[in-house]
Amino acid sequence: MAGENWTFWLNMTNFALGMITVLALVVVFVAVGWDLLVLKVHKTRAMDRIDEELQAMLHAGSHSLSVPGLGLTMADGGEKIEPSEAEASDEKSRK
């Protein structure tokens, strides 16, 4: 370089590159922190949803589960069999 101020421009270039590096690190740390925060919030909500689904399954009835795409499914894969009229009347007379 012909001028005497080449050290000034060298220092300015180093300063600019340092600022760009610091800015990039801040962006990365903010992005990672944001992702971790979102993950924690969604995990908490998912746990609440799982608890609600478990309570619904326990109160729904024996061996049945309502699946949105399939309708009412049975735990053993079969169809629900209603008791016959004779068995139902026997149970009523026993009580």
User: What number of structural domains do the residues give?
Assistant: 1
Oligomer, anyone? single chain
Radius of gyration (CA) equals 34 Å
Main pleated sheet: 2 strands, antiparallel
Number of helices: 2
Strand order of the largest sheet: 1-2
Helix content: 55-70%
Which class do the helix and strand fractions yield? mainly alpha
Low-confidence stretches: none
The geometry reads as rod-shaped
User: N-to-C SSE series?
Assistant: HEEH
- Rounded mean pLDDT score: 75
The number of distinct β-strands equals 2
Distance between the termini: 107 Å
Instruction: Quote the beta fraction.
Output: 5-15%
Q: What can you tell me about this protein's structure?
A:
By secondary structure, the chain is mainly α. The protein has one domain (6-94). The protein has 2 helices and 2 strands, in the order αββα. Strands 1-2 form a two-stranded antiparallel sheet. A hairpin with a 3-residue loop joins strand 1 (64-67) and strand 2 (71-74). The longest helix is centred in the middle third of the chain and has 55 residues, at 6-60. The protein is rod-shaped, with a radius of gyration of 34 Å. The mean pLDDT is 75.
